[in-house]
């Protein structure tokens, strides 16, 4: 188990990182655009303030996010490197499924996606290769990361059965939560409790959204079970979740939720419609993750939990900035902007 000396390099960075975030000021990102940009100029997001359009915002945020994750990764002790990398690999899975869905729908894949900025990853190479040959076969050939390849293989198999491009959205959710789950499962020390308090809400969010997506597109219960199987972490038994999905597969959504909701410890599934349920689990999970991360900063710093806390706060804040600036540029109302923020 790593000690204070092993975390001596990364802890100052993590403290500085939090001091440069917007924190509660993210709620000040409101129309007009000039005032929203002014809020960013006095923070670590100053480069984003120079963006001229939505693509510029996306590229600036992605560059900042992934360069920060990379720096944390490099300075972290070995026991925390996998945890830091999970915050990039989860994004890689999501982007890979965007590429796969585009191909399934007969469209050209995007030439750029955010995780292409992760220099330790492979998405830049993947995008370059499939641009010349945008086929599912070629995509499977060029994905060399074992975890990404496994998710893509399962998603492709499920698509062959369902013929619905939405299946890649389902595997985007399950694939990203597996990246976080694997990172948490790797800890056996006394620090695992604090790490779980921060990361498990993110895992539950993606798992619950995956249940809703799977039910909507009629993912086979056996396929669902294979997609989420793995070690028990966060106090959640994935076998029980798979069993709950199988029981609710043929019935009404309300019955499925009655079975799944009790399995979640850090997030809530509330509402009648699928959209209401998605909003409730997303907001409750992200609020739980944010509160846990803030609490970690008040405690003993030389632990992997501080790595999880810093990168969780960064991820949530980057998502909120992207939503706010995109909404302002698209002329959303103030109410719509507030709903877009986690």
UniProtKB/TrEMBL annotation:
The keyword Ion transport applies. The keyword Iron does not apply. Pfam families: vATP-synt_AC39. One of its GO terms (molecular function) is proton-transporting ATPase activity, rotational mechanism. Keywords: Ion transport, Transport. InterPro entries: ATPase_csu/dsu_sf (IPR036079), ATPase_V0-cplx_csu/dsu (IPR002843), V-type_ATPase_csu/dsu_dom_3 (IPR044911). This is V-type ATP synthase subunit C.
């Amino acid at each position: 188990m790593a000690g204070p000396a092993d975390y001596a390099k990364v802890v100052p960075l993590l403290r500085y990182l939090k001091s440069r975030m917007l924190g509660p000021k993210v709620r000040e990102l409101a129309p007009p655009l000039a005032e929203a940009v002014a809020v960013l100029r006095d923070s670590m997001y100053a480069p984003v303030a120079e963006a001229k359009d939505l693509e510029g915002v996306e590229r600036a945020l992605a560059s900042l996010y992934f360069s920060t994750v990379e720096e944390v990764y490099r300075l972290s002790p070995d026991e925390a490197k996998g945890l830091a990398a999970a915050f990039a690999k989860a994004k890689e899975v999501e982007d890979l499924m965007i590429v796969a869905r585009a191909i399934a729908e007969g469209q050209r894949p995007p030439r750029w996606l955010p995780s292409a900025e992760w220099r330790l990853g492979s998405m830049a190479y993947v995008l370059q290769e499939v641009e010349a040959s945008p086929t599912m076969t070629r995509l499977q050939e060029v994905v060399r990361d074992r975890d990404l390849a496994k998710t893509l293989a399962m998603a492709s198999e499920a698509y062959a059965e369902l013929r619905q491009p939405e299946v890649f959205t389902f595997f985007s959710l399950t694939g990203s939560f597996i990246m976080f789950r694997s990172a948490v499962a790797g800890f056996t020390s006394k620090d695992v409790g604090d790490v779980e308090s921060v990361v498990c809400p993110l895992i539950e969010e993606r798992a619950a959204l995956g249940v809703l997506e799977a039910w909507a597109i009629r993912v086979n219960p056996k396929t669902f079970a294979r997609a989420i199987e793995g070690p028990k972490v966060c106090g959640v038994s994935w076998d029980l979740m798979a069993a709950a999905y199988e029981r609710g597969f043929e019935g009404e959504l309300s019955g499925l939720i009655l079975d799944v909701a009790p399995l979640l410890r850090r997030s809530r599934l509330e509402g009648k419609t699928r959209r209401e349920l998605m909003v409730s689990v997303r907001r409750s999970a992200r609020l739980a993750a944010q509160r846990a991360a803030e609490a970690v900063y008040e405690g003993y710093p030389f632990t992997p939990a501080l790595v999880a806390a810093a990168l969780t706060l960064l991820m949530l804040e980057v998502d909120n900035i992207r939503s706010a600036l995109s909404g302002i540029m698209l002329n959303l109302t103030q109410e719509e902007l507030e709903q877009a923020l986690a």
